[in-house]
Amino acid sequence: MADLSKYLEQREKLKSYMENEANRDVLCWYEENAQLYEQSFHSFGFEYHKTVMSAVLKHVKDKNSRILDCGAGSGVIGEMLVENGYHNMDALDGSKSMLDIAKGKNIYDKLVCATIGTKPIEAIETNAYDLIVSAGLFAHGAVYFESIPVLMEHLKQGGYFIFDIADYPGEKINRLLSIQRFKGLAVEWEKKGFCRLISEERGFHSHQAHPNSIMTLHKM
Ligand SMILES: C[S@@+](CC[C@H](N)C(=O)[O-])C[C@H]1O[C@@H](n2cnc3c(N)ncnc32)[C@H](O)[C@@H]1O
């Protein structure tokens, strides 16, 4: 049974770690609060996972696609992928206790615990996936856009990377992760012949309040 008040209290701590861009503290938070996250997720009113799932259904029609769920956490997106007929999935996350919950759901083939940064992730094959999906991964103190080229190494040519960016215009927490900054980087990546932004869908991060954008990058 979800203890939403406890989750909200813990979330304030997470928010302060994020504002301080304290990656170790953010990952420790997930490590310590994995069960609470899992129990409270659906009561909190998040919407971002639904918007990411809609973009996957729109852009990736082949249900046999090989998928890497980056920042898979407790497997929220993985469960939705399975409900929608996808089945060939691996999970990557920096928190072992989040992955332990995901493992119990029996939806992923391989689960890899590794921190996503700007160094190659050796435990994951390169040029192997048709789709990389991430939901709720790009956040201060968590993962920044600079990790996108590293993650895309794991995609096959012609593969897609679909992910959300929460839009908090004017807020302190939006410094490095603004949609405007992402689009500037995407123009540079396209000029280098690396990948192309093929779609942006607008949705909501949570509670039908904070908007978000779901980006689809196509590896060239
Ligand atoms: C908001 S949760 C999203 C989980 C899941 N995708 C969902 O929609 O419920 C963010 C996840 O990213 C993971 N994470 C944060 N920073 C990370 C990093 N630098 N490397 C790997 N995983 C990270 C956390 O452990 C957590 O499971």
From TrEMBL:
SUPFAM superfamilies: S-adenosyl-L-methionine-dependent methyltransferases. Residues 67-159 form the Methyltransferase domain. Transmembrane segments: none annotated. It holds the Pfam family Methyltransf_25. This is Putative Williams-Beuren syndrome chromosomal region 27 protein-like. PANTHER family: METHYLTRANSFERASE. GO terms for molecular function: polyprenyldihydroxybenzoate methyltransferase activity. Gene3D superfamilies: Vaccinia Virus protein VP39 (3.40.50.150).
